[in-house]
Amino acid sequence: MFGSRRELRKMQWGIARRASLRISAISALIASGMALAAPADGGFVGGPKGPAPWTKAPSAEPQTLRFAVIGDRTGLARPGVFEQAIKQVDLLQPEFLINVGDLIEGYTGDTAELAREWGEMESAIGQLRAPFFYVAGNHDIGNDLMLNAWKAKRGEPYYQFVYKDVLFLVLDTEDPPRDMPSAFAKQFHQMAAGMKTDPVATEKALAQFLGGVNADRAKGNPTDPEMAALSLARFSPKQVDFALKAIADHPQVRWTFVLMHKPAWKLKSAEFAKIEAALGGRPYTVIAGHNHYYTHEQRNGRDYITMGTAGAISHEHGTGEMDHIAWVTLRDAAPDIALIKLNGLLDRTGTSGQTLAR
């Protein structure tokens, strides 16, 4: 009996001692101004009561929006650039990634070839953990067969969504689609095949061809009417009505992003002019692709951006010739837009994996 009481007192003393040590430790933390546990909202906790070794404490910003935009992979893709770009963007973990069109070479009436091309892209995009939003380009829906395939898998090529009180209006500049002239399509597919086997030589030959085309334009020589029609931005009355309604239905959103493939504001589109007018005085940004060359301009006091490439061949040379993403951050005021070149976006090993990116 005596032994049991002695053991009991020893155990009680040990418990009291440990409790005392815990209370002393907690008291020391409180005295030093340190917090005991992180708050439920994930906000910043810690630090002394006096001077702190930081400029200001970070704060939770649930309304801050961070997403990425990526440009054209085609027409005429440099092998592997876009596929590697998806892996690189995934390192940044945006809330979502949106492409401005031209993911496949397209312009085909072969359903098996179309399925193969989209299968390659979906496999690459599937490596991205964040959501991926599609925007239709002329190479993606270049004819009615391609349009129907798009609709069967992704619905209408123009759509809208609201996220974090921001309206995203995605337009279809190929409404209705227009196919390539047959002679040009044959030449185009030959070059697309060449890009897979010898991209450097094929791009060099294409550059010489485009140099001649640009020289003819500079001299004022007439452009082939079929090719001129192919380059226009087209919006059906139904799409215009949809866009006007989407804008009218969301008058108080804190920002509006308008995304499309062809930069319709550069192409004298009367239909886009109606949409632009409806945007009025609201805060908005317009982003397009297609030209394979980065440009930024101000219209109506707003940013209008044409993305550079994400693997597509270049159409001209200069400062806008680059493979890149646009990283968009929206807090309370206008969005910050940072361009990140793919050959400068490295993983933890210090490499980009980009051999043909520029």
UniProtKB/TrEMBL annotation:
Coiled coil: none annotated. GO terms for molecular function: hydrolase activity. The keyword Signal applies. Residues 1-37 form the signal peptide. Keywords: Signal. InterPro entries: Calcineurin-like_PHP, Metallo-depent_PP-like, STPP_CPPED1. It comes from the Bacteria. Residues 65-293 form the Calcineurin-like phosphoesterase domain. The keyword Signal applies. This is Calcineurin-like phosphoesterase. It comes from Edaphosphingomonas laterariae.
